[in-house]
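Pipeline run #58 for the internal structure catalog. This entry was flagged by the ingest filter as a single-chain record with no existing model, so it goes straight to prediction. Upstream metadata was stripped on purpose; only the residue string is passed forward. Reviewer on rotation: M.T. Logging verbosity set to normal.
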Amino acid sequence: MADYYIGLMSGTSLDSIDAVLVDFSSTMQLVATRSHPLPNTLRRDIHRLMSSGDHEIELMGVVDRQFALCQVEAVKKLLADNAIDSNDITAIGSHGQTIRHRPADQQRSYQHAFSLQIGDPNTIAYETQITTVADFRRRDIAANGQGAPLAPLFHRYILNQQKRTADGVVICNIGGFSNPTILGHNTICGFDSGPGNVLMDSWIERKRQQRYDDAGAWARSGTLHEALLDKLLEHEYFALPLPKSTGRESFNLDWLDQQLETLNVPIADADVQRTLLELTARSIAAAISDHPLTSSALYICGGGAHNSFLLQRLTELLPRHLVATTQELGLDPDWVEGCAFAWLAKQAINRQAVDCQAVTGAMSDNILGGIYYA
């Protein structure tokens, strides 16, 4: 008998809602997927909520519901397209859309840390009539963790269920931000190494009105600007100790504009894009090379898996590593994060605590996510 869960994920790129249907009845099976578009007006309003502004509580209340209703559409179409009845689904795991992530760090105390996602789970549970698990990050923050990344435990689960050795393996999600999971013998470490696609996507949308740089072609056409790269690498985040996580609050176009203004030299748009790609590649490579856990294989998932120039640079920067996508592990790189939240929902429904201590710095194992019954 099938044990169906749905995972919903929307990252910092805001390109779509990823919806996955997963069967956990034996080994995990990815049954069906849907990439559900976000209306441009909703994308615009979410972007507004990612920085302080007028009437933001009013806007958040409205967008919280609008985004949830968009998630509901994604779930209903996923089920209809695959002739699956909602009564057959045990639960939905919804990450929600992060609009503010302020974990504890050297400037912010544990008591003032928070992470805020929208996508009202009450609405999802009511409209789909499927029990919904959401709000995964805040329990971890309550336990003095970073609240993110949460996928590393799922990455280990993938390798364990395939009976593959996890020793020396890195699985790195490159979405808006880059999150390497470094696995050793009975050890695990995960964190945000820095920006992934967020700056590249923002720059090409501003300059070319395109959502992303297809295969890194525009970056490939440019020339690396070493002075700009050095300036970008001076960001204090890169020197922070683990555990750590980041977001648009730290890496955004306003910050990039400030670095360009400080340099005060003309830089071609394509050269900026080339340098932003290098920032992503070098920060990932440095995070892996500098880590005390040695590794020999790097598997990429997320949107960055489609950036062939970025994968080329990672291969060049990590010559002792096999660099491939998670397709080599039997899981399509586009759907790993969605599957992770289906899995986290399963853990919550079954009252299974998740050990994030070595990843987020939480002080204890915790059942992550609030459960909203149908």
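catalog note: The chain has two domains: 4-147+337-372, 155-329.
catalog note: The CA atoms of residues 202 and 216 lie 14 Å apart.
status: ready for reviewer M.T.
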